[in-house]
Amino acid sequence: MLLLTSGCASKKADPLPDSLALSADKPSDSADKPSDSAEKSSDPSTGKTMKIRPSALAGRWYSANPQELRASIDGYLRDAKQEAVPGVRAIVVPHAGHYWSGPTAAEAYRALGKTTYRRVFIFCPNHRVPVRGAVSVSADAFETPLGNIPVDRRTVDAWQAGGLIRIDDGAHKLEHAIEIQLPFLQVIFADHMPAIVPIIAGELSTSEVQAIAAKLREEMGPDDLLLISSDFLHYGENYGYVPFGAPVQENIRKYDARTIEAIQKLDGSSFEKFARETPHAACGINSLRILAFTFEHSHYQARELAYDTSGRRSGEDDMSVSYVAMAITDTNSGENMNDGNMNADKSKTPVSPAAQKTAHDIVRRALRAAVDAQRTSPLPADIDLGSDSDVFRESYGVFVTLNEPNGNLRGCIGNILPVATLAESLWGRAQDVALNDPRFDPVQPGELPGLSIEISVLTKPEPIPGPDHIVIGKHGVVMRKLGRSAVFLPQVAPEQGWNVEQMLTALSRKAGLAPQAWREGAEFSVFEAQVF
């Protein structure tokens, strides 16, 4: 689930800008420098200028004609044999030109069925420039002939602020492995197109891979999808890798089968060893490493959906690239992934007075650790969970709010869905609110004694038909529209003296939409909170 950085209404800080200046189109050593090279367009919902990453593939890797492109995608999906698969949490999809890998890719997209998502994390390798670490873009949207796909700037900005990723528009400028997926997403999701979090996974240490995987486990809720864009074995002298001879296609299949088997174990440490020993297994090996750690030791299953090679399609064995479609599914889910979550859902929040004191102790310790080191750290193994320890091992949505002595907001960060144990969420959100709220500078040691702490433990959000079902003072509200979303905790509206209309107007602005955008086409969910 998206790490929501502003469940509270600020009395001091202005909202985060809807878009940031585009970085220079330079290689990775020039990230974060401003540039005027991006295309710009107007967001119809706000009238504001958007920074667009223009298509690098239209007319080359797929048709530049919108009607022809849509017809070709429809054809691949129509010809695919795969039925919808319950509980899909991630897919592995090839990324060659649509003529070559489109049929295989369609099998992965067909597995999603009619499931809708709010956000898609897309990880891919770098093909054009060397990349150290993980990098995203400063753009507000990606362009294809079928229209623009919004980038989830809140997530990208929060991850950048947390040090997990950098911004490098140069690396993304000509990279095909993300863009090649977008027309498929646009066709299958149509008017319900989710926002994307586009990330190139370059050279990464094991600890960096684990940190990204931990963040995905923490944030991914029932309306998030992880998409790994990767081809598999690249065979032939042109690729500098000819490990065997005839029968070439048979040997390629055996080679790829070992890679698929390694992925299906969903064991991060095991796949790290495999990646070191078999670096030619897939161009997206670093993204697959992230996948393995994200879903390890859990109730997930990786299944192969389709397999093909360019050599089989061309009839030539001297050069061949392998295409694999896979799905990672939640074995505990029902027919739709929105029935499940990466951790157990809880509809009640029975935090006893003793546990509330322990929760505040955990938050204070987390704040002190983060502020002193000016970086985040994992939950310590020796953390004291007090006499009522069981509640801290259950999963809840959590917000941590900091207020200054004069009552002004100093930070507010949380996760709506129960994506981790209460102890882990308290620790993580406390450190994030100290360092990573993009509206504020990091908290300094001298500030801590004067800051008050408010903790909100949440029930699971439930969809409602419309605003008439919102009860001020009881319900927190999540609003979604046009790939954007925003949330207010239950206590916000009473604190501000708002009625429902005033609250939703403020919520629309907070989501970067027009003030009255909530009146038509918006979706709402409500939740309750135990605040202490």
Primary descriptors:
globular; 5-stranded antiparallel sheet; alpha+beta; 9-stranded mixed sheet; 14 helices; disordered N terminus; 22 strands; 532 residues
Strand content: 15-25%
Structural class: alpha+beta
Give the helix level as a range of percent.
25-40%
Give the helix tally.
Answer: 14
Radius of gyration (Å): 23 Å
Overall body shape: globular
- Major sheet: 9 strands, mixed
Total beta strands: 22
Oligomer: single chain
Q: Could you outline the blueprint of secondary structure elements for this entry?
A:
Elements: E1 3-4, E2 39-42, E3 49-53, H1 66-79, E4 88-93, H2 98-110, E5 119-124, E6 134-136, E7 141-144, E8 147-150, H3 153-161, E9 166-167, H4 169-173, H5 182-189, E10 195-201, H6 206-219, E11 224-229, E12 234-236, H7 248-264, H8 268-277, H9 285-294, E13 300-309, H10 310-314, E14 319-330, H11 353-373, E15 397-403, E16 409-415, H12 422-435, E17 452-458, E18 462-464, E19 476-481, E20 484-488, H13 492-496, H14 500-510, E21 523-527, E22 529-531
Helix pairs in contact: 1-2, 6-9, 8-9, 11-12
